[in-house]
Design a protein that fits this description.
By secondary structure, the chain is of the alpha+beta class. The protein has one domain. It is about 45% helix and about 20% strand. It has six helices and seven strands, in the order E-H-H-E-E-H-H-E-E-H-E-H-E. A five-stranded antiparallel β-sheet has the order 5-4-7-1-6. The chain has a two-stranded antiparallel ribbon with strand order 2-3. Helix 1 packs across helix 3 and helix 4 runs antiparallel to helix 5. The radius of gyration is 17 Å and the shape is globular. The two termini are about 20 Å apart.
Length: about 180
């Protein structure tokens, strides 16, 4: 796992808070949590990129081992501070909202562009705050109901190679509660 400390301008990356029901016992246990039997056999494809279930699960298992202990409320708050520029925000059940960054070429004047950009910044901060509130509330509720659970904070980027591209874009965590922020 790579820890991002600032904005990555030439690639996309996504940040995840992944709520595992328990610490996986081994690679197969993690694959059973993440993938259907078909995906375990065939892997996951996104556009022209493909990764096996083993490749993906090995990366995630290493991230779990590297993190060592479940994320705390403070870790989650820091996650939202670091990721305060997310464009797409969502949960396992779907996108919470989408912020479209204004582009200068779509406006007649610098003044109109700056007005649109200021409005975008306000909207983005409101969405981010809603996600943080939802995330922290959901996390606290989830931890109460899953004391044996493990919360992983992970960052995956398409610039790190095919398996990471698939982790970022392949909806790999759809079977597990999670929150994500995409920065495309």
């Amino acid at each position: 796992m790579k820890t991002r400390v600032g904005f990555v301008s030439n690639s996309s990356s996504s940040s995840f808070i992944i709520q595992f029901p328990r610490i996986p016992k081994d690679l197969q246990d993690l694959k059973d949590m993440l993938f259907t039997p078909f995906q375990q056999l065939k892997g996951v494809s996104v556009r022209d990129e493909h990764a096996t279930a083993n490749q993906l699960a090995e990366i995630v298992l290493k991230d779990i081992e590297d993190q060592k202990e479940t994320a705390s409320k403070e870790n989650i708050e820091e996650f939202f501070e670091i990721n305060d520029y997310g464009y797409h925000v969502g949960t396992a059940t779907g996108k919470l909202n989408y912020c479209n960054t204004p582009r200068r070429k779509n406006y007649e004047s610098d003044e109109k562009f700056h007005e649109a950009y200021d409005a975008y910044q306000i909207e983005r901060k409101e969405i981010q705050k809603r996600l943080e509130d939802v995330g922290l509330t959901k996390l606290e509720d989830w931890q109460t109901n899953h004391p044996e659970g493990f919360v992983l904070i992970a960052y995956y980027s398409d610039s790190d190679g095919t398996p990471y591209y698939v982790l970022e874009n392949g909806n790999v965590f759809r079977n597990i509660e999670h929150i994500y922020l995409e920065t495309h």
